[in-house]
Amino acid sequence: MSSHQPEFLEHSRIWENLRYIYPVVSRRAGGVSLGINLNIDKVCNFGCIYCEVNRADIPLYRNVNSAALESELIAILTLVKSGRFFNDPRFSRLLKENIPPQVRDIAFSGDGEPTTFRNFPAIVQTVIATRAALDLQDIPITLITNASMFHRSSVLQALKDITAAGGEIWAKLDAGAAAYFQQINRAAIPFSRILQNIVLAGKIMPLVLQSCFMQVAGIGPNSQEIAEYIQRIREFVCAGAQISRIQIYTVARPPADRTVTALNTPELEAICAQISAALPNILVQRYDGFWSGYTYE
Ligand code: SF4
How many distinct structural domains can be found in the chain? Predict the structure, then answer.
């Protein structure tokens, strides 16, 4: 399946009349993903330079209603189970493009960091129970996270619950050094906290690392930065963390910051080759971008 398909550009948070659930075609899920947006207030504790969320937009809603979210989940999973979900023209056309007509995952993602939502552990339980009630346990649950909250015991327990239910934790690591982390992720949280959290969780469950590399004002990460990144992963492994695979990707949709553009395929290939050579026991997966973005002059 090529990633150069227009469906990957469409990550609208609103489908039909749903407020929290947004089905998308995801490169990294390999098909249709049911996103759950727990950050409808558009607040995130990171300010990633490549983030596609336009925080200047006034949010339509600010509070998550757990009962309404559960109703949405039941409704959409019932559609999936009946097969009627793929009657929607946006998804039925995927059949012609060799994208499998199945939901590849239920993903906590959205307009901010899902684990900062105070009822995140309870929502995880709701998703696991709803999926079981509809006998859809074969749809995996994915948490797409910036790893900033793993030190909270309730969040760590939720991570365990997702893993025990057959799901995966995709932890963001876009940098190997604190300065680059600050340039790219622009977080008030120290880089050391993110590193500690990845080790903390990785000692309990396997983690998928998800790493976005890009050009900023026409300049991509240099080989020294990638070497630092590799060194951090070596340190994770030495500390006992399990890293099941690494996803390397680049910008695929227009970010709010117009100085950010995608790396081209040879640039991503070079990064993946450097990582694979240094970490031969960890699977490295490459997801090319196709949006060349704005030119920087
Ligand atoms: S952590 Fe995710 S939602 Fe938050 S700023 Fe970064 S890319 Fe955007």
Answer: 1
Residue 129 falls within a domain, yes or no? yes
CATH number of the domain at 56, please.
3.20.20.70
Residue 35 belongs to a domain = yes
The answer to whether residue 121 sits within a structural domain is yes
- 34 Cα to the center of ligand 1, angstroms: 18
Quote the ligand 1 centre to 175 CA distance (angstroms).
14
Nearest CA to ligand 1 atom 3: 112
Is the residue at 173 inside a domain? yes
| Sheet of 207-212, strands arranged across | 21-26, 31-37, 103-109, 141-145, 168-172, 207-212, 243-249, 283-287
Mutate which of 109, 146, 253 for ligand 1? The one with the most ligand atoms within 8 Å of its CB, which is 146
Determine the distance separating the centroid of ligand 1 and the alpha carbon of 150, expressed in angstroms. 16
Q: Which domain holds residue 87?
A: 6-287
CB neighbour burial string for 194-217, b if at least 16 within 10 angstroms, e if fewer: bbebbbbbbebbebbbbbbbbbbe
Q: In the structure, which protein residues have their CB atom closer than 6 angstroms to any atom of ligand 1?
A: 44, 46-48, 51, 53, 112-113, 146
Mean pLDDT by 10 residues, the chain (297 residues): 45 70 87 93 95 82 90 94 85 72 92 96 98 97 98 98 98 98 96 98 98 96 96 98 96 86 93 96 88 33
